[in-house]
């Protein structure tokens, strides 16, 4: 069978990517459950009225709370957020997936959309942090 | 005797559902994505006419939150209501189940040593309803029919929290589904659909990744008698097709259910739809 | 490295929990049932001292209703609260989980092609708390300790809606749990418990069925290097030990996790406790 | 693998026993979900105040409704009830498992308890409806 340690080590070797492993799911449990609560219209209304007050009901870490309030999605991924759960947040803000996702890439929405129309981001140089380091190619590392 | 007559795979991109629901399928941006489904819609309506579709999909933090994560769950309910994913449910018909066949498959799979979760109540998200929109209806505007033309058995696979089931396990599940269908006494025309994929990454600095070559190689691998896709490790999907490209393991359930060899009926690939590559294939088992 | 040091099996009869909670364990009716656990309690406290127990049990329409029926579910939460089964929760400590090991096992099992449901929030009923009451505590009155002396990973098996997993699948799950534990880097003393059974039927005109010979043959079969129990079909449990005797398939998860051969440390059998035969065995793996 | 049709046929061959198969689970779905609702104190209070009114909220068949109101547990098993769900009903009535179970056997509670203390019901002649019919032994058939 698969060596579980090797399996999870490899998942951390992809540039610019946070695979939603059990470790992240644990860290992000309350964060994702908070986001899920925004599926209900009543909760969305309370959230929009006073975000900080709404968050007080949820066991988030201070870092998670700060990243939620500032809509720092890359940071939220680092802190255990999963994109399908975080989507409840940016949908409530009226953002599409393209708009929200582009904020994580450091590109403007327009540039990101132009990249997609041109065929998307190439996998070249984006497959492995280790391989990039070995070849001296740092593009997209981490 | 029930029999699996065809396999269909398709992306289940939410934006395609939105384009259908807002009547935008003919717009320049969307038209090429939808064009590739015209053959399928005509074939479904005129020729294929399934009684039941076993629809392999994943829930996207809709019916399941983080309290409970089933690896394989089969929907045995009478009906499944399109979910409110946060902006109101899609304006599409309720999905009628086939509890007789669904329970039969669930019980067969458990006796066949698959550790199924049985679901008797579940709202279904775009992962399930968008493929229905792409396959059914006959007019050029992709108008949603008043009712779906067949029953649907949802088969939900966890591809969100790692690890998802291995490709081998998905393929084996498909094989077991085919055995289960074959032992159902009623005469039913059953299709199996795999959904999700192709290349896409919705998160992080690498978002927007698309790999046209890999995707097309994957489509190639579904045709004929090769089983090489059965052994593709998760890490390869992630590196080559983006973090959400892992959804393609669900297509292997469909492929496994078609048996040793398949014949290509139709194929379509387009980039982009929103963040994603659109892939679609229609196969039939070679007896 | 974590290692499985012992296997314990025991009935999880709710009435035994009630006898503990009401301080009736010394009454004439109950004393012989409890007497057989005295050896185990002394051994657990003085010698065995597990860090973690993987506790295989079934939910009895408590945490799960008919909306969702997982075949195998593993509890990965920080803690599990004793459930209110309709007359208030049992007055026993909260059950502390071991999320690190539980997630490790869950993920290993999925990679090993078991289709686990991961649970992050679950109240636990008598199926889980009665075995804790029977194993832990040191005084002759079976007073419940202020805290359970170890962490617990609940592993819930569907044995209510047919079909449950086959005996072979349960045994194989145990083997896979042992592999998963062996690959956990921390040094932990882990026990695995199978619960439920023995003979009992709680429904219909045949209620009250007890089969002392079959039960004792089952206990015999757990000892040594035989794997004959692996292949006992469901129908045999039902015919011979009553409709609820099927719970014994959960003991096979424990047996499977102990490897090729076991050595008997302790054994106990008594009829009746309420509607049920009480069975209990303590085994260790032979390296 | 197991022949599923033979598997389920055998489950119906046990005297005085209703194995909770998928078929029964479907038939009894709303019945069992109704019973489950009695896990909550509020629902128990409403149920005790007016059983028929409480049942009106649940999609039971007339036969199920009648069997619930008359506490006919054997009939409820025939109509898709599962004993662990039905237990919520008899617990609410203040009955123990022994008391409730004895009502299904045609024995008094005292006789049932005496049988258990004496070692319980023997499996002899109780294993198979078919075998009993073949041997002319009708004891406990069906
Ligand atoms: Fe998807
Ligand atoms: Fe039990």
Automatic annotation (TrEMBL), chains A, D:
GO terms for molecular function: protocatechuate 4,5-dioxygenase activity. Its EC number is 1.13.11.8. This is Protocatechuate 4,5-dioxygenase subunit alpha. NCBIfam families: PCA_ligA (TIGR02792), PRK13377.1 (NF009917). Keywords: Dioxygenase, Oxidoreductase. Residues 31-117 form the Extradiol ring-cleavage dioxygenase LigAB LigA subunit domain. It comes from the Bacteria.
TrEMBL record, chains B, C:
One of its GO terms (molecular function) is ferrous iron binding. Keywords: Dioxygenase, Oxidoreductase. Gene3D superfamilies: LigB-like (3.40.830.10). Residues 9-278 form the Extradiol ring-cleavage dioxygenase class III enzyme subunit B domain. InterPro entries: Xdiol_dOase_suB. NCBIfam families: PRK13364.1, PRK13365.1, PRK13366.1. This is Protocatechuate 3,4-dioxygenase.
């Amino acid at each position: 069978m698969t060596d579980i340690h090797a399996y999870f080590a490899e998942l951390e070797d992809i540039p610019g990517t946070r695979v939603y492993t059990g470790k992240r799911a644990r860290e992000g449990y309350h964060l994702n459950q908070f986001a899920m609560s925004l599926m209900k219209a009543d909760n969305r209304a309370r959230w929009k009225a006073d975000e900080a007050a709404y968050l007080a009901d949820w066991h988030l870490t201070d870092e998670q709370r700060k990243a939620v309030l500032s809509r720092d999605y890359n940071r939220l991924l680092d802190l255990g957020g999963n994109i399908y759960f975080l989507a409840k947040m940016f949908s409530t803000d009226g953002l599409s997936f393209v708009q929200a996702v582009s904020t994580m890439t450091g590109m403007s929405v327009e540039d990101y959309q132009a990249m997609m129309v041109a065929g998307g981001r190439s996998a070249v140089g984006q497959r492995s942090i280790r391989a990039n380091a070995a070849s001296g190619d740092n593009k997209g590392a981490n | 005797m029930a029999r699996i007559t065809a396999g269909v795979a398709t992306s289940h991109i939410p934006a395609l559902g939105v384009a259908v629901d807002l009547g935008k399928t003919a717009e320049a941006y969307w038209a090429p994505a939808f064009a590739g489904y015209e053959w399928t819609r005509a074939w479904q309506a005129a020729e294929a006419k399934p009684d039941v579709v076993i629809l392999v999909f994943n829930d996207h933090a809709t019916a399941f939150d983080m309290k409970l994560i089933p690896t394989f769950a089969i929907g045995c309910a009478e009906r499944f209501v399109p979910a409110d994913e946060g902006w109101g449910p899609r304006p599409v018909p309720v999905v009628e189940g086939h509890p007789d066949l669904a329970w039969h498959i669930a019980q067969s799979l458990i006796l066949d040593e698959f550790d199924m979760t049985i679901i008797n109540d579940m709202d279904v998200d775009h992962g399930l309803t968008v493929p229905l929109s792409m396959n059914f209806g006959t007019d050029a505007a992709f108008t949603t029919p008043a009712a779906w033309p067949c029953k649907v058995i949802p088969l939900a696979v966890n591809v969100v929290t790692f690890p998802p089931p291995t490709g081998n396990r998905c393929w084996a599940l498909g094989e077991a589904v085919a055995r289960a269908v074959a032992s159902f006494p009623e005469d039913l025309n059953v299709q199996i659909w795999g959904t999700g994929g192709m290349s896409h990454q919705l998160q992080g600095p690498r978002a927007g990744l698309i790999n046209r070559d890999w995707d097309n190689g994957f489509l190639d691998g579904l045709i004929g008698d090769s089983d090489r896709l059965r052994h593709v490790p998760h890490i390869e999907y992630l590196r080559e097709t983006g973090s959400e490209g892992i959804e393609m393991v669900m297509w292997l359930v469909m492929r496994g259910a078609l048996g040793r060899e398949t014949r290509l009926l139709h194929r379509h690939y387009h980039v982009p739809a929103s963040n994603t590559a659109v892939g679609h294939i229609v196969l039939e088992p070679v007896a």
